């Protein structure tokens, strides 16, 4: 069965990730297309990625990575980036995370919530046997899926001051599965996605001696599927 197109009958999206740079590995190409079409997209990060740079203390890395994420978001037309201040590396799937995510969903009032792949392993195209997924990624995705329902229920987290929000139409999980159920043509957003990932310069420099621009290009090439003359991003879609 051929994949279905990603729906676009919405105006406001909230993209939720665990760390700075998570969104930039592919999903930012879709964001660039959406904002160019006049859609409103906000970013929500559970942590500041402060444990993500070897040899750099969390106190130094956190503000640096936050700044990189804000610059990266601006490249694809996103001006609002919120951080929840959960601790990087030990993000817990539980009530505390759900509460914070539900409050944020109520504040931002999205019709589309997009989050990251949260399975136990992930396998890029052409890579065998694949990689273990981050514990933070797994916790974040489960928290987001739960928090969409929490945000709509006035009796869950009644201590929250934010007004409940039941207007989420779609919950999408970004995936690099070679056969995703839903796809979107992001050809027009690929160059901005590469530029967006390149803004995470200090982070990428710590990962590899390969030039940052080349790393970014390779990662976006890997994260976007090629079909005929199109570059695509894949999603698993759920009703809100």
TrEMBL record:
UniProtKB keywords: Zinc
Superkingdom field: Bacteria
GO molecular function term, any single one: hydrolase activity, acting on carbon-nitrogen (but not peptide) bonds, in linear amides
Coiled coil feature spans: none
InterPro entries tied to this protein: GlcNAc_PI_deacetylase-related (IPR003737), LmbE-like_dom_sf (IPR024078)
Pfam name, any one: PIG-L
GO biological process: glycoside metabolic process
PANTHER family linked: LMBE FAMILY PROTEIN (PTHR12993:SF28), N-ACETYLGLUCOSAMINYL-PHOSPHATIDYLINOSITOL DE-N-ACETYLASE-RELATED (PTHR12993)
Protein name as it appears in the record: LmbE family protein
């Amino acid at each position: 069965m051929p994949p279905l197109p990603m729906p676009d009958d919405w105006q406001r999206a909230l993209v939720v990730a665990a760390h700075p740079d998570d969104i930039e590995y592919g999903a930012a190409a879709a964001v660039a297309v959406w904002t160019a079409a006049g859609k409103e997209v906000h970013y929500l990060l559970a942590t500041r990625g402060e444990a993500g740079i070897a040899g750099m203390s969390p106190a130094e890395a956190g503000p640096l990575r936050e700044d990189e994420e804000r610059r990266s978001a601006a490249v694809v037309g996103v001006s609002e980036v919120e951080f929840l201040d959960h601790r990087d590396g030990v993000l817990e799937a539980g009530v505390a995370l759900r509460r914070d995510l539900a409050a944020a969903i109520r504040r931002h009032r999205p019709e589309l919530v997009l989050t990251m792949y949260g399975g136990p392993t992930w396998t890029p195209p052409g890579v065998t046997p694949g990689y273990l997924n981050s514990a933070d990624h797994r916790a974040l995705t489960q928290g987001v899926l739960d928090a969409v329902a929490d945000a709509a229920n006035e009796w869950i987290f009644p201590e929250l001051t934010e007004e409940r929000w039941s207007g989420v139409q779609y919950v999408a999980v970004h995936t690099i599965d070679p056969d995703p159920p839903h796809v979107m043509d992001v050809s027009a957003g690929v160059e901005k996605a590469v530029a967006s990932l390149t803004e995470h310069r200090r982070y990428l420099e710590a990962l590899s001696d390969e030039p940052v621009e080349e790393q970014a290009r390779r990662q976006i090439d890997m994260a976007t599927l090629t079909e005929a003359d199109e570059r695509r991003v894949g999603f698993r879609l759920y009703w809100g």
